[in-house]
Design goal:
- By secondary structure, the protein is an alpha+beta fold.
- The protein has a domain at 51-169.
- 28% of the residues lie in helices and 14% in strands.
- It is built from 5 helices and 6 strands.
- The chain has helices at residues 6-16, 22-27, 52-63, 74-80, 157-169, and strands at residues 85-88, 95-98, 103-104, 121-124, 130-134, 139-143.
- The strands form 2 sheets. It has a 3-stranded antiparallel sheet, with no helix packed on it. A 3-stranded antiparallel sheet has the order 4-5-6, with helices on both faces.
- The longest helix has 13 residues, at 157-169.
- The protein is globular, with a radius of gyration of 16 Å.
Length: 177
């Protein structure tokens, strides 16, 4: 599942433009809640404010200790990384696999082909953001762009190359990178 087929991407774009669709309501409709002048008003689907370093520290604390603190037990981390739901996501209209609240490989937006370990978990976000943790490698990674991405229905190419490079630097093999 390296990327969504063009028909699926077109379906997603159509749904984004349809105010009655779940896709629009979840991804676009909530934007009217967002007030750029008041960052304390967070949009539930857009508008999260974080630096890559902070996101990677948060994810690192999900798979190991950071400054002596581990946020959850190793058993709970295993549950995050275990598939709990598979199928077509009703919001983004793409095949997806979810652990407890996190995307799992393999989907077009969170692809194993980037080198993600089998128990990696995280998120792909609008504008090219990509964050994950890999408990088997005790690895956390976050990439946040300053500008938007035109990529829809698959992982941002730059994030894909960065993730693949990280895994190659750790001695892993990466298919499709």
């Amino acid at each position: 599942m390296d990327g969504a087929d063009p028909g699926t991407e077109l379906d997603m774009l159509r749904a984004l433009g349809d105010p009655g669709s779940l896709t629009h309501r979840a991804m676009i409709g909530s934007m009217r809640l967002y007030d750029a002048l008041d960052p304390s008003v967070e949009d539930p689907s857009y508008g999260g404010l974080a630096a890559a370093g902070s996101l990677s520290r948060l994810f690192a604390a999900l798979v190991g200790e950071v400054d002596g603190i581990r946020l959850i037990s190793a058993d709970r981390t295993a549950e995050l990384a275990r598939p709990h739901s598979r199928g077509t996501c009703e919001v983004v209209l793409l095949p997806s696999t979810w652990g407890l609240g996190f995307m799992l490989p393999d989907s077009p937006v969170f692809p194993a082909s980037a080198g993600l370990g089998p128990r990696a978990f995280g998120f792909d976000g609008a504008n090219g953001t990509f964050v994950f943790a890999d408990p088997d490698r005790e690895l956390a990674f976050a990439y946040v762009q300053n500008a938007g991405s035109r990529t829809i229905g698959r992982m941002n190419d730059r994030a894909h190359r960065l993730v693949a490079a990280v895994y190659r630097s750790l001695g892993g093999t990466v298919s499709g990178a």
